[in-house]
Amino acid sequence: RYALPNATRTRLIMKSNLREWRHIITLRMHSSAQPEAQEIAKIIWGELMPHFPEIFGDIPAILEAGSRANR
Question: The dihedral of CA 58, 62, 68, 71: what is its sign?
Answer without folding.
Answer: negative
